[in-house]
Write a structure and sequence with these properties.
heterodimer; A: 256 residues; mainly alpha; Four Helix Bundle (Hemerythrin (Met), subunit A); 7 helices; 80% helix; globular; B: 222 residues
Chain lengths: 256, 222
């Protein structure tokens, strides 16, 4: 039952219709949540007693990290859809997710290093979590590069889907080994932010920002998928038109 | 089944021997990198012996990439890959045979030559043996991961660069455990067996995922 509803929603024609209807509302919700979340994190949340005002970077940093990982998971699920069901929308979803995920991962790294300068005294530390995110960004870069190199879209879709799944198998291993490596190389001398508990005055702004970023991410993703679908339609129409012109008999040369 | 495996293995070994490609070339490249590092860092033997295992491992990772782009591409271009894929033998088996042949001509020579190159960076005998052993255990992981990338990029002209970009992030765990196992052998807080076991596990995992992914990529690449 649920599957059939999903199948209907995933049919490209249906998808264009419902996503077109849903997007303005989603953009609205995203803008509102972002507004509220930014207000809370700038004006309501208190400065940290240790980190001062720089703690506010966390309200951007944490949601970006979450979305960077979330979109990789989206890509992995879409990759299964591409390989198992050969669903056209699965590939579209994967393709739209990659640049968004890469962008959020980059935002996470940049905000993290901006926070690190005043806190740790340096823009970059080879801390386990930073390094894992950096490797995630590298994997995103590899996927995007592979997409650009293979010209045929169907072939590119399958190649990228396979690579995405190989990456998904490897990401936990990478995470584990980077943790091992960083504990081996440096003692836990770094000031860990947050700790096990986080005060409610900071938790609520953070949760609002996470919700806002999630809705923003979904809206961006749907918009990207629509663009990609339209781009493919234009491509198909161009090819059809070119074939029609080729098939048409050449006009008789005019006698001069 | 076994005969098909051996046939592909023998064919690839013979090809590697006749074309005079990857094996010797990989070793020369390995030597080049090991020689370049002291020029960059200075001839301080204490420093070199401390970072020696890391240099050798990094060189091994880069040397594995040599010739990897031709692993499936050469067969794809002259059509022999299609013929091999048309046989009753499963494609996964063919992939394993080709990867084993590639490892025998690149990974194995690197592991065996590591002690000699270790002299250049002033490794102690223990460190030499450890580097050799960890390379022996760890380079299969590099080759199998690389094979997946090679299959994905088989149809791309000049796929070598994209292959490196795609494959190198996935080799990070192997590099980490290869170097830390080698360092653990020279004394340290961690017993030698722990990282070595994990390195072996990485090779086994890579053998499974790499084979499946490479076969899938070749099958669906058309």
């Amino acid at each position: 039952m649920a599957m059939s509803v999903f199948t209907r929603l995933a049919q490209p024609g249906h998808f264009m219709r419902w996503s077109g209807a849903a997007l303005p509302a989603l953009w609205g919700v995203a803008a509102t949540l972002l507004g509220v979340g930014l207000y809370l994190s700038w004006f309501v949340a208190p400065p940290d007693y240790q980190q001062g005002e720089t703690v506010r970077i966390m309200f951007i940093h944490v949601p970006a990290a979450w979305l960077g990982v979330f979109f990789y998971a989206t890509m992995a699920v879409s990759a299964v859809g591409t390989l198992v069901w050969r669903h056209p929308l699965a590939d579209v979803a994967q393709r739209a997710a990659a640049p968004i995920g890469a962008a959020f991962t980059l935002v996470c790294l940049v905000t993290g290093s901006l926070w690190g300068k005043p806190m740790w005294g340096t823009y970059w530390v080879w801390d386990a979590r930073l390094t894992s995110m950096l490797v995630l960004l590298l994997i995103y870069a590899g996927l995007l590069a592979l997409w650009r190199t293979i010209e045929d879209p169907a072939r590119a879709a399958r190649a990228v889907a396979i690579l995405t799944l190989v990456g998904a198998v490897n990401l936990p291993i990478i995470k584990f080994s980077v943790n091992w490596w960083s504990t081996l190389h440096q003692p836990a001398s770094i000031l860990r932010m947050g700790g096990p508990t986080i005060h409610p005055t900071m938790l609520y702004p953070l949760l609002t920002m996470i919700a806002a970023f999630s809705v923003l991410g979904i809206a961006l993703h749907l918009q990207g998928m629509r663009t990609e679908l339209l781009r493919r339609r234009v491509r198909t129409l161009t090819i059809l038109e070119a074939e029609r012109l080729d098939a048409a008999p050449l006009p008789a040369p005019q006698a001069a | 089944m076994t005969r098909a495996f051996l046939a592909v293995l023998a064919r690839d070994l013979r090809l590697a021997g006749r074309i005079g490609g990857s094996g010797a070339l990989g070793l020369v490249f390995f030597l080049m990198i090991v020689v370049m590092v002291p020029f960059a860092l200075g001839p301080d033997l204490n420093l070199l012996s401390r970072i020696g295992p890391a240099i050798l491992w990094l060189a091994a990772v880069l040397a594995t990439l040599i010739g990897l782009d031709r692993l499936f591409q050469a067969d794809e271009e002259d059509g022999s890959l299609d013929l091999i894929a048309g046989t009753p033998a499963p494609l996964e088996l063919v992939v394993v045979a080709k990867v084993v042949a590639h490892w025998l001509t690149t990974g194995l020579p690197l592991a065996l030559a590591a002690p000699v190159f270790g002299l250049l960076v002033a490794l102690t005998p223990t460190a030499m043996a450890a580097t050799s052993l960890t390379l022996l255990v760890g380079t299969p992981a590099l080759t199998f991961i690389g094979a997946a990338g090679a299959a994905l990029t088989a149809s791309i002209r000049r796929g070598g660069l994209i292959l490196a970009v795609v494959v190198l992030p996935l080799m990070i765990p192997t590099l980490i455990f290869g170097v830390s196992a080698t360092e653990a052998a020279g004394g340290g807080t961690v017993p030698f067996a722990t990282p070595l076991m994990i390195l072996a596990a990485l090779s086994l995992v890579a053998a499974v995922t790499g084979t499946l992914a490479a076969a899938a990529a070749l099958r669906w690449g058309e």
